[in-house]
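Dear support,

Our group has been running a series of protein-ligand predictions, and this particular one with pyridoxal-5'-phosphate is the one our PI (initials K.S.) wants archived with full inputs and outputs. We had some confusion internally about which version of the output was final, so please treat the block below as the authoritative record. The input we submitted was:
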Amino acid sequence: MQEIFESKLQSKLPNLGTTIFTTMSALSNEHKAINLSQGFPDFPLDTQFEDILKQNLSKNVHQYAPMMGLPKLRDAIQKLISREHNRQLSIDEILITSGATQAIFTAIQALVNKDDEVIIIDPAYDCYAPAVKLVGGKCVHIPLNQKFELDLERIKSALNDNTRMLILNNPHNPTGAVFGKDQLKKLVGILNQFPNCLVLSDEVYEFINFTNEAITMHQFESLQNRLITVSSFGKTLHVTGWKVGYLTAPKHLISEIAKVHQYLVFSVNHYAQESIADYLNIVDIDTISRMYNQKRTLLQGLLENSRFNLLPCSGTYFQLIDYSDISQEKDVDFAIWLTKEIGVATIPISVFFKEEFSQKVLRLCFAKSEETLTQAAQRLCQI
Ligand SMILES: Cc1ncc(COP(=O)(O)O)c(C=O)c1O
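Confirmed final output from the archive:
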């Protein structure tokens, strides 16, 4: 019986195993390593946020929330986007989602059709390609150049009448690169020649930007009727376990996205939405970049005398380290060795590429307490 079932089951994602984040975190637990692999903070919530949570516990916020999200949260997001990104949206252009991942998946499900081409910039966050494949779309992978900048020539030559969507992530995971206004302007100049191509801009690290550059795609008026932006409160407010995020899109697109959202999720955690809305009214968003900048400086200082070479990090909470002075092993093998023998779990970055990537580079997450970073750096400096 089991055999008959298996012979009829055709995997929709045959080449996909467990994600590298799950694998490295499991290995880290097994070897009691310090986990700098997965991108989540290990420090407590702001006490003001905790107080809001305590107050809201006894409110009537434990049943289904409205399908598009709580109006008070969408209102707070509207103000945030107006203040921080200088764009005026109506709350009908904002949808609350179960994290950025669901926003991305839902937008692709709603807007990409079979055989449509979707440009993915490699190295890429791992949920993009499976979401495209599940709708029968074709992933067109364009790598960043050697300096981790957008390869505008290759993007231009990949665009054609079948390109339904381009997915951009800025600030960029895993490289920590920030594509500045100049690169973005040139990209938009190219996209203006392809008015049918939607732009899905994954901006989950929008408030962890150490440059003075405005990185949001909200700033480009010519794109606004085909732009979907994705954000994550997990990243912005250090609550990755809540899985609450949002997307913005013009009305003709968000109405299609909402049709999928309605049957995929319907309603996102009401208590979390209420609490985030209250917190957004009091939090100073600028403190986020400042706090992560201190952590970045601390880690970089601690690793200064190590044998690793630190690559530039302009945004996100990821620092890339080059280990080519230490070993010529492949990055996956070296990351496993580092976890087992040195006790520090990292992420090998070749897994984010479709094409072969042979540089000897690992990703460290510095969204960690000072103590965790110091201990991890001490171990890394022993090598
Ligand atoms: C680039 C990028 N996009 C999306 C996500 C997913 O965010 P969420 O946890 O809100 O689903 C992540 C999480 O690591 C990410 O790094």
